[in-house]
Amino acid sequence: MIGSGKSDDANLPAALKDLAFEYSEKEFQLSTGPDQVLLKCGNELIDKVAYETYRPGPATDSRGWQLEPNSLNSVANDQAKNWCYTGLPILSEINLYGKNKVASSGRENPLCTFMALPYLHINDQQAVLIEGINFEQTLKIAADALKGDFAISELTIWALRDQVITPGVAKTIADLYLNNIEKLYHSKTFTVIDWNHAVWHFAWAVSNLYRNGNDAVKAELKVAYEDAITRPKTLDKFELVAIDNILSHEILMGDAHDMGHGFAQRHIVVLGNPDYVQSYEEYLENKRSDFSINMINFLFNAKNFFSNLFS
Question: How do the domains of the chain map onto residue ranges?
Answer without folding.
Answer: 9-116, 119-303
